[in-house]
Amino acid sequence: MISVAGVGWVSWQGYGQGPVKHIGDMSERRLPDIPWTALFDTPDRQFGRMDAYSRIGLAAAVFAMKDARFRILDNRIKGIVAVTQTGCLRSDADYFRTVLDGRGITASPTLFAYTLPTSLIGEIAIRLGITGPGFVIQQDTLSGHAGLDLAVDILESNEADAMLVGHCDIGPPDAIQTGEPGSDLPALFFVLRKDDSLEPGYGILSVTSHGMSFGNRVVSGHIDLLASFPSHPEGML
Amino acid sequence: MTLDMMEKSGSNPHCFDGSNPDLQRPLRRVWVAGMWGVTALGNTIEDTWRHILQGNTGILPMDRFSTETYMSDYAACIPGMPVSAGRSRMLDMLERLTVQIGPLPENVLIITATTKADIDLLENIQNKKNVDHDEVLYPHRMPGIVANMTGSGNPGFNISAACVSASIAVGRAASLISRGCHDAILVCCMDFVSEFVFSGFSSLKILSPTPCQPFDRDRQGLSLGDGACAILLMAEDHARKDNRTCLGTIDGWAMSNDASHMTSPSRDAKGLVQAICWAVNRAGIRLMDIGVISAHGTGTIYNDLMEITAFHKVFQTRQIPVYSVKGAIGHTLGAAGGMEVCLGIKALNTGLVPSTIGLTTPMAEAMGMVSTVVRNVDTDFLMTTNSGFGGINSSIILGKSIA
Lengths: 237, 403
Description:
Chain A is α+β, with helices and mostly antiparallel strands.
């Protein structure tokens, strides 16, 4: 059995752990400032230097692990599957601007390091001791089920004892109109864990040949999973 | 004590130290029922393989964009892929690939692997060149594009995991098939040489000023390459019913993370060692059964040293044959692991270990493992390895074709 052990999120208005009930006014899409003190016990100088995509995703992952009361040095094998659409496109634009500005001479290696969607995976892995499978998937909707399917596949194959699964998507840079709607919740991660009765989580994610269910409700993906939390009033998202 | 005895007694400190999870063995055998590719060396996997055996390289001075301010002007570019206004080179490359693909099974799922997809469109936008905004700009659209080009298939998702993207896509597809979630999956892997990526690797000072020399004492960095390949994976029972031919099998797969650095591999190779051991564990074979390794072998100082360190830790004193194809077709990034599966299957079925093109004087640590000449090998299993930014590692165990 697989339990849902924790949830962490970053909205356009704030951030936190546990089921989110109000995601606030989405008319102003400005990412919140998150101090390192909200995440770590010791200073993390790199946190403020990360691109926004990695920073927001890392924050949601840390909140989810805290919510699951996972110790970072826990020796259980942990993995991560992150879903995105626009990924690091903002960093891509920022980096290529440094190429164009100096005709290649001033290309920034620091920015280039953040031009892979998996920069998020690397930053999370380093800080949370993720030594199992970790990758990003891109699908045509953030609310699809592929991320959850893959995380469950990894757990059921015994490749990891716990999985972070969710999404991180902060939208494209302003100068690029793409028609993508963007996400109401820029970053959302769950901790899924092989269930052990000593650490009860929010409930059991049941997997059958017909799909997944949580709390007697069929869930179509990780965003739907959030809406299925018992303490989460219907229609708040 | 021989390696075989050590394995049986469980005394190999790296693979049998008790931290090895009991990975689920494949519940259904996974066949490679088709493979197609296009590289700088040829428009098919067969052409590419033939050129590699002949010792040819596709890494040449290029004129795709000005390299005046970069540390190299070498790359393995597919000839005749001109850019046209508002259209990505990716589409041209994919057309060359998908035209080769025959009828696909019903309900085949399409998974793609790419690091930057059609990043040249972003270059055009920022260069204020003509761009059609209806064109693709995100990797998530790639499965749909492949489905349209092949005229069949259900678009799934794209996997992005730096230079390990393709091998993770193959591993996840094999897992989904072996556990009965799908009967057939087409894994389509792709990346091409763009100024965006070329300038980035140049800024990181890991581009080789000359064609790359994997595992060489004097290696100076990597050379980029264009590449796309498609691998049709099917459950054995489903493939037999569909009268497919088994070109090879995917017997083991695993991935891991170093959790130590964003752009540099772990110097003690702990992540790659873990991936190798887990893949062997899943395949249910002994280390002795692996006869040859298709390494990531990029030609950078740190990658090649890390890989050889991992091979020594796992295989101990055994001088297992190792080769890299990146001196021939360049580093195709998100396609690399897929290319290496295709070419690895050719190596297994022909019993030939290709030379590592670009290699002249092996690094001391790789002496006796890598070679400048083609070697013969009689083995049932070949292992591929890949590592990439973000500390990601993977290993895949390939089996021979089945009649």
